Amino acid sequence: EPELSRTVTVTSDGTVFLPLIGAVKVEGLTIKQITDQVTKTLITLFREPKVMVSFERVGSTGEFIYALGQVFRPGAYQFHRGVTVAELLAVAGGPTQQAGLGEALIIHKAAANAVDLGKLLHGDASQNQVLQPGDVLVIPDDRKSRILVLGQVNKPGYVTLKDDDRILDAVVGAGGPTLKAAPESIRILRSGQPIKTDLEAFLRQGTLELNPVLQPGDIVVMPETDRRVIVLGAVVRPGPVDMGETFPKTVMDAIAAAGGPATLSKLTTVYLIRQAGTAQPTAITLDVWKYLHEGCANQNVMLQPGDVVFVPQSPLQTVSTIVSMLSGLTLIRALLGLPVTY
Known about the structure:
By secondary structure, this protein is of the alpha+beta class. About 20% of the residues lie in helices and about 25% in strands.
């Protein structure tokens, strides 16, 4: 059957893929053993199948093709006659999410030919060029649909831009703010020029213009606070506290600056939450009541910029609940002094 005849390549694990059969392990087998194995499988599908096996090449030809850039497994791959762009893309693990599919190139000797992998992946066979020995498939970054988020976010770097994404979407896409972030001073740079934004006013008033739609190539910068802590939970005025030029101060100083403890506050179990760089925040449990009534100074530790002091109510919230709460939009609201739900 001509439609079943194939020239196939033995993969690195000694397997070939045949029509109707699928994967066949041929490593270490002679031509007769391969013939018998394929015949035995086909006999369940055809009456008296005739199978002929031959080697077109034995071992490496010394000829390679290459996939570079935004693929999951960039590198050199053994060339075989008739290999196409689609085959090379498949063995290289496919394109990453950051791939500029419409900007790929096939470099052949001194020439570079464009290939639209987006069209190829949507069934346009005209883009599935046959490759030659030494050809290089280069898939660049898709900078047209990305923005750069820098500063005090948990995953600084490029973020893929979706339709109508706004500045808050970018911050969340970059892992959310760190505890040291200053979202009141966040800024967008577009072609080197600042774009007006005011997240606090947006979250208070819902004015979309203050949470602007981003454009490809924008740079979002989340600055770092140098003297602010956040006091949350059962205090009179929860929110950010500017500790002034004499920073650092103590946990009790921060609670006092937030108006002092509120009704039902649990001063025997106060959480000090601190984040080093982009690592997961950690919590220290303090007994402020013991400091106030017994003078235990080690329960009233010195603060650092970006620290969070959480005064629980009864019944007591767990450390894991509080730490998990301090992320994404909830943390942005807390940093801006807006109401949050515990």
